[in-house]
Amino acid sequence: MGKGDKDFEQRLAVAVGRHLEQPAEIRDLHRLTGGAVAETWWFDAVAGSETHEMILRLARYEEADNSFYVSKRTEAEIQILANTANVPAPNVYFILEAADNIGTGYVMQRIAGESIPRKILRDEQYTGARDLMARQCGGILCRIHAMSHDSISGLKILKTDQQLVDQYAMYESFDEPRPVFEFAFNWLKANAPEDPAPCLVHADFRNGNLIVGPEGVRSVLDWEMAHLGDPMEDLGWLCVNSWRFGNIDKPVGGFGEREDLFAGYEAAGGRVDPEKVQYWEVFGTLKWGLICRFQSLMHLSGSVRSVELAAIGRRVSETELDLLQLLT
Amino acid sequence: MTGEKPSSRELVTAVKEFMETKVIQSVDKHTAFHARVAANVLATVDRELELGPELAIAEKERLTTLLKTDGNRSALNKELCLRIRDKKIDLENPELIEHLYQTVMGRLSIDNPRYSAYLKALEAR
After folding, report:
1. Is A304 on the interface with B (CB under 8 A)?
2. Which ipTM was obtained for this model?
3. Domain A117-327: which topology?
4. Residue ranges per domain, chain A?
5. CATH code at A6-109
6. Given CB atoms, is A244 within the 8 Å cutoff of chain B?
7. Tens digits of residue pLDDT in B35-77
8. Considering only CB atoms, which chain B residues are within 8 Å of A248?
9. Residue A1 has what pLDDT?
10. Average pLDDT over chain A, rounded to an integer
């Protein structure tokens, strides 16, 4: 099955037509760059006199029971729930069925705006947005953490010590000694905070997964790492240097200050523990380093051949330097 | 090094220039993105060919001094990791911190010398 070819487009037209309850034609179908575990396809669906702007999210390889990622179905369910909780996420139109013969995934609303970090951080039209975004992110994160998630069965509770065990197992599976990572694991084990009552954690809330307009954050993407755990994990992850894209002196996503992030979170009714945020920044830096190595192994093992995945393996050293700066 | 001409570095640079000046402009956006990634990969390979051997020797020498034992670089790194795991050596040790910084900075001079934290650390040192 060639994704993106005429047959693929035809099958997508049938599925979209069922959702719209009238025949639909697919236009301008193309794959967007990025996404190691999911593919994102851009298209318009023309039905009658109306054009619907849509996005197809597809699992990139067969979904296994994996503690790092939720299924595409769960991801869709979370986005649907987010929309009822005043959290900006693209509306989900429908979840693909096996009979659609397209893959595992769902079709969602296409939100206009910018998601490329370097443009958000450098283009003049986002100057005003950059001043607002840290505070906005605080508010959105607080509302995510307050979401009532009982209706979603695919979410796992990830306690901090369990996450450390899982991450260490992944590190060991690489069989590559990295002294800086050993130190980071020691520090994380010795300084692990107590687990609070588990709440919904996005776990990939960062510059690059936000759709931004001149007025600030419009929508939050990529819910595939969501789980139940410590809410401070999200705040720490957002501050990881890798997501500052060169603006190292703006700790929140390269656009803002921690004080504004925390103020936005507390104004929305949450409580911030800055020490825990720092803990999760260290954890997040290590986790990103391990993800980089893991993604390059997806290429090296032959499961997904891609120069992009191969190259990301050489970004591990970036996180090693960040960890040294954080721990010494 | 075989001493053959053009050298590995010259060949890699030739392919990188081909990607940058011919390929990126003449393919679709999605492929152009990957062609740019490919050109960056070749730049990394070129830096590794230039800097890698000396950095590896220096790293091994530091490890030998630090651990007071001999072996190849991989075995020494494994030994260092074991000692860290067993808490026989910690980050209070200035010699160790210096070794880790030099090793990581050396690696970044190959992997990504434009990384923000690398540039900042170079300035600070």
Report:
1. no
2. 0.95
3. Aminoglycoside 3'-phosphotransferase; Chain: A, domain 2 (3.90.1200)
4. 6-109, 117-327
5. 3.30.200
6. yes
7. 999 999 999 999 999 999 999 999 999 999 999 999 999 999 9
8. 116-117, 120
9. 43
10. 94
